[in-house]
Write a structure and sequence with these properties.
Layout (H helix, E strand, L loop, with lengths): L2 H8 L3 H10 L1 H39 L5 H8 L3 H4 L1 H24 L1 H21 L3 H29 L2 H32 L4 H4 L1 H15 L13 H24 L4 H22 L14 H18 L1 H12 L4 H8 L3 H15 L5 H20 L7 H27 L7 H38 L5 H12 L3 H8 L4 H34 L18 H4 L1
Helix pairs in contact: 3-8, 3-9, 3-11, 6-7, 6-8, 6-12, 6-20, 7-8, 7-11, 8-20, 9-16, 9-17, 9-19, 12-13, 12-20, 14-18, 14-19, 14-20, 14-23, 15-16, 17-19, 18-19, 18-23, 19-20, 20-21, 20-23, 21-22, 22-23
Length: 551
């Protein structure tokens, strides 16, 4: 072999020299902190993806189909009332299963439940997209709600377990930004997919995401569990689920059947009895699904009141406002979804602002009350614009409410968990999610009843000659956006004018009520949440931070 060739082969490569350097004990001790820091950042990023992406899909699916219901009804030859259960079946199951899902995550492991939830959610999405009738679709949506509940409880417990101190605050802010964007982008994404691909792809789009997240979770997430967790609280699950279902049925059916109807009254009484039974059952469990002991702490009660009001007041409006844009202002589903897009900005930006600038100096009590106050003021301001049917004033006032929602989106969960032991993180996350989504379920039904009642009252004042059945039928037409049909029933050329005015009056009352709920909750949170227990997280006490979450 030539000398120059021998020298080239025998000379160590750059990679070889680098390996030899790293094998040196002195140099390895020098590089080790940097390597560990980079590995930690990479691991934290992967964990955040495993937690945030499924949460994004869960919340997206909660309202992505609100603009697709008409297309679904036409495709499956179902009446609109039957297809409305596409939303209710998912939300009800989701809310009812979150707490037992938290218990399962504590007992059998958060990673395992996250994977099972992903599998169920992905499978159910495929069944939803392939459904040939409304019954099959609604049952698939029910299964999807179960998978979503398992995912969310396990994801939040994983988040709470994996991060501490300032890192946890940054992680929750990142998660809150992702979820906030999903909640608001739902109508936009739903409109785009429905218009260009068809409503079935609203569900099929979950398949590649679900498969990728299953693989990434298997690789990146470390398992954790509560070593003292016991068996599933079957009695607690049954009584709480029954309470929520009966209450929702009564609120939804009351407008049509009448609030004095014996069936409606029976549903309300049954809901109250099941709630009492649930509380009694939980006090007798050695390791209950909901540990009522923690509700003796005012801070925990105040945080859950804030979460309930957030769901009832603001998140419910994200479903009703697209209907206002379509029915009241005459926009297409896609255009209505796009009109919601500016409201996504505060929900994405504000949690990051909170984590970087406010959380280190503001207590959890101050953050909760500030967020609820902004939501209340913004919704009441919006209510004053409902009869004008102009987009710009509504956008300005709703941006105020969205800024408050951006604060609440992750603070309601974080503040509640500050007074809960780490080994009960699954239970706490289940309660937090259940409270928020129960607020959506109850708020949607309650505020819908207020909308209908106000429209009916407006019609009765305008046309006192109408009998009660005729007024109710006219109110149903108007709340459904069928202004032309209402005009034909009235038989007047100007009929559309009174229909639109009564519709705006109903939305005015609904938004005013939602704003009042937020302001009342703000006052209660200020009185109950302890500023010391939710003290600001000082950056000086935490060595380093997660660059990918805050920088």
């Amino acid at each position: 072999m030539p000398a120059n060739e021998f020298a080239r082969v025998s000379r160590p490569s750059k990679l070889g020299r680098r390996i030899e350097e790293l094998e040196s004990p002195v140099l390895f001790s020098y590089y080790r902190p940097l390597l560990e820091k980079n590995m930690k950042v990479s691991k934290n990023l992967l964990v955040m993806l495993c937690v945030s992406v499924p949460s994004f899909m869960i919340n997206l699916d909660g309202n992505i189909i609100s603009v697709s219901l008409s297309s679904i009804a036409r495709s499956l030859h179902a009446d609109f009332a039957a297809v409305e259960w596409v939303i209710s079946a998912y939300t009800l199951t989701f809310a009812a299963m979150l707490m037992p899902a938290g218990t399962l995550a504590d007992r059998f492991g958060r990673k395992r439940m996250l994977i099972i939830g992903l599998i169920l959610f992905t499978l159910a999405s495929a069944l939803c997209g392939a459904a040939q009738n409304d019954t099959a679709l609604n049952w698939a949506r029910t299964l999807q709600g179960v998978g979503a509940a398992l995912q969310l409880s396990a994801a939040m417990a994983t988040l709470s377990h994996a991060f501490r101190g300032l890192e946890r605050a940054r992680a929750f802010s990142f998660w809150g930004s992702v979820v906030g964007a999903a909640i608001t982008l739902g109508p936009v994404v739903g409109g785009l997919i429905t218009q260009y691909l068809g409503w079935r792809w609203v569900f099929f789009v979950n398949l590649p995401v679900g498969i990728a997240m299953i693989a990434l979770t298997l690789f990146a997430v470390e398992d954790s569990k509560d070593p003292q967790a016991k068996r599933l609280d079957i009695a607690g699950v049954a009584t709480f689920s029954g309470f929520l279902i009966l209450l929702t049925l009564a609120l939804i059916s009351g407008n049509r059947a009448g609030w004095s109807n014996s069936l409606i009254l029976g549903e309300f009484i049954g809901a109250g009895a099941l709630l009492a039974a649930f509380l009694a059952v939980e006090t007798r469990q050695p390791r209950p699904m909901v540990d009522l002991y923690f509700f003796k702490r005012p801070t925990y009660v105040g945080a859950n009141i804030a979460g309930l009001a957030y769901g009832m007041a603001f998140l419910t409006m994200l479903t009703y406002l697209p209907l206002y844009f379509q029915n009241g202002m005459g926009h297409t589903p896609l255009a209505s979804g796009l009109l919601m897009l500016p409201m996504a900005v505060p929900l994405f930006v504000i949690p990051r602002v909170v984590a970087r600038w406010l959380a280190p100096s503001w207590s959890g009590r101050l953050l909760l009350t500030t967020g609820l106050t902004l939501v209340g003021v913004g919704l009441i301001w919006t209510s004053t614009e409902m009869r004008g049917f102009a987009y710009e004033p509504i956008l300005v006032s709703m941006l105020v409410a969205s800024c408050g929602a951006g604060v609440l989106n992750e603070e309601t969960a974080r503040v509640g968990m500050t007074v809960i032991p780490a080994d009960r993180a699954g239970m706490a996350s289940g309660v937090s999610g259940t409270v928020k989504f129960s607020g959506i379920v109850i708020g949607f039904a309650t505020l819908g009843a207020i909308l209908f009642s106000r429209v009916e009252a407006s019609l009765t004042a305008t046309f006192p000659r109408y009998s009660l059945p005729v007024s109710k039928e006219l109110a149903r037409m108007i709340t459904g956006g069928h202004f032309h049909a209402a005009q034909m029933l009235e038989g007047q050329i100007g009929g559309s004018s009174f229909a639109q005015l009564s519709f705006g009056s109903g939305y005015e009352a609904m938004l005013m009520t939602a704003g009042a709920i937020a302001l009342i909750a703000s006052a209660l949170s200020w009185m109950l949440v302890d500023a010391g227990e939710t003290a600001p997280i000082g950056t000086e006490s935490i060595p380093g931070h997660i660059a990918v979450l805050g920088d």
